[in-house]
Amino acid sequence: MVTAVPDDPPGDMPDDLPDDWPARGELLWEPAPGAPAGTELGRYLAWIAAERGLTFPGYDELWRWSVEELSDFWQSIAEWTATRWRVVPEQTLASRAMPGAQWFVGGRLNYAEHALRSARTRPDETAVVAHSQTRPPLALSWRELADAVALCRHGLRALGVTRGDRVVAYAPNIPETLVAFLATASLGAVWASCPPEFGVRAVVDRFAPLEPSVLLAVDGYHYGARVIDRRVEVDTIEDALPTLRAVVHVPYLHDAPPADARPRITWDGLLAEHGLLEFEAVPFDHPLFVLSSSGTTGLPKAIVHGHGGITLEHQKALRLHHDLGEGDRVLWFTTTGWMMWNLLVSGLLVGATLVLFDGDPGWPDLETLWRLASDTDLDVLGVSAAFVMACRKAGVAPPPHGLRELGVTGSPLPADGFRWAARVLGERVRIASTSGGTDVCTAFVGSSPWLPVRAGEISGRYLGCDVRAFDPDGTTCPPGVVGELVVTAPMLSMPVAFWNDDDGSKLRAAYFEEYPGVWHHGDRVTFFADGACIVSGRSDATLNRGGVRLGTGDVYAVVDALPEVEDSLVVHLDGDADTPMGELVLFVVLADGETLDEALRVRIVSALRDDLSPRHVPDTIVAAPSIPSTLSGKKLEVPVKRILAGARAADVASTSSLVDPDALAWFEQLAASR
Prior knowledge:
This protein is an alpha/beta fold.
């Protein structure tokens, strides 16, 4: 352990920061003259002008209308996207209460019917292109996709699956998973999935409360050069789920199960008999899938999302913010355990072609996804902020491509990540940094073809989302002042419920206790006068130095850029009699061959002081073997802070859903020694 003592202790610094803090980033991209003409947003604006007589001089005016006239906005989205109502709603928004908003009352529809609409109008065009490190590439036309869903639907019905039953999958981002999800949705049954890299405990923690009827599972997979067999894990998961009526074996690693394997239905057997493609008409808020939170702030929550909210919210997000339409190609690097898989799948709602990828994005090198983007003619590529920063650090040079958007989420993208992406991808590509959550299965803030892109900033608020920064008293913060990210009006895709939370008490406690009647998300955010913002990390992971709250993302942007450092994590521990201001602890994972000596300590301290401020200089720097993070790249700052305060790792995080399941054990040992 090395202690870093800054030349100017934080307590001796002035309390006031400059008026322009945080400084605005430089302009990297701006809409072409006449924007957003020629985009999906432009088509929506033309439609609403013709149908409603509404025109908007700029994005801010459009956003304000979308949140002030919520009912009119969402009714327009439902009409513009040609929602297929099996029963037409009586009212668009019956109650704005949070929680408890009532959307499209009386309406009935089905998500899967909307996802497969292009099978009727463009049956021979490509719906899915799948690339994998486990098997050769394959493609499905819209007709082939719809036919497979019909067969799978019939197979699930033969297993007794009906409306409201739960179907779960231990499977990667491959066509079989997509087909099974759409078939489940078509029946009005409820879906949940985990990627096969999850350990048994993480899977059982998520699936057992759902009391599933059917489990689909692969036998293993390739991850880069590694071969990972999962047959024993599948057996253990089956034994832990007593409500299962059937387990469907999806051959992926092996062509056939071994002779002594348990007798199971095969994927081909599930799809063996012909069936009609029909769609159960369900209420707007009927459960579609259950998502589990990432576990960055504690044990995962089981979040229920509904057919209607996801159908309309995802079309709005993908069309108006990501500019996706018929025939466009989209790949978002994700596993089936992250909400971005659900958003990616919803590309089918807008008629886009899904490019699925399963494998290690860093194998054989970090150019893998960039080559795939070029080879598959992608329009939109989505990745995590951590991936962008890794590519920047490695000096990746993407090949020629046709991208028009790089989507980035998972954690705040530092300004240097923006600059690198803008430089290597070219001026045509819009960097769409977004921030949202599994809780709403969408973003609160993000990009738009009508908004400029500045380094280190998210371009603006999402349409239909009245997102703001609140101070502790519940007052909206003025521009440039950091506050709590809140949503003051209902969003269409807010959770229908938490699973097994009959009285709604857990949901209210999660989001509505801090500011009654207002969604409190738990992120720190700074909005500027033009609506752009900076999300600076989780509220309970915020660094408090001398009464000034600092974001962890700023620290990572500086420290992770040092060539000697592979990864880092920073936490602020509460003070005691000996350390009344608390202790700022920085953990670093060093590059091969590096040691945390005095010279490196000085470089870290100098970089933080010079690039940020003396307040950002840690009291203690510790070399760690690895940084605990989720499979979607989120660092577990809050669990580490709680462990260092005396909590057990098993009580603060689902360790078997981490990149390194053993990463938190080292912090437990450190806490004991401290």
